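Quick sanity check, Probable septum site-determining protein MinC:
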Amino acid sequence: MAEWNHYVTMKGTNNGIVVYLDDQCSFERVLDELKNKLQSNNSSGATEITIHSQYRFLSEDQRQLLFNLIDDYSDLTVKDIESYVITREDAYELYENTTVKTVMKTIRSGQVHEVKGDALIIGDINPGGTVLATGNIFVLGKLRGIAHAGVEGDENCIVAASYMHPNQIRIASKISRAPDYDVEGSPREFAFINSSTEQIELEQLQHIQKLRPKLLDVFERGL
């Protein structure tokens, strides 16, 4: 009987079977034990599994070795490979997409201010001025120009302003234009996509906690 050192642990979860790989031993030992467990597994039929390498970073070659081993010695299918670590490039991308970029200026007609992440404008956005952000847009001033939040497709983003009287608001692919007739603006409002109507709607800022309770949780933004 082969001696196993529990370098590989299989656990059933609500999301299926997760195979945890020990992150303290050598990768070769992980492969050896995984091979032994696969050879002794008597179950039949295709089953999807998720491999979790915990705090071990797997190179592309190591990931391919795992795929090949599981394919050669079992009917299992690898759905995903997860870990608690990310590359420096991924970390930089996460930082860029989740930090608030602040400017203290007025966005005038013809000017375009574009950021990755959330945009905080301390000043006005004049008619003809445009702000684009992959995240949310917060305006500590008058929004009278164009604000486009979630430019890469995030429909959970919002546009908030101290005074809301925009030419146009866009969130992801949804557009809300100002009416042809003159209307008064409104103080302390935010725009969001109502999931029921799939349209952009306005609401008072005091309701933001109810409608967007995870607004400040960066891990809920689909990154």
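Posting the structure with no commentary besides this: The mean pLDDT is 88.
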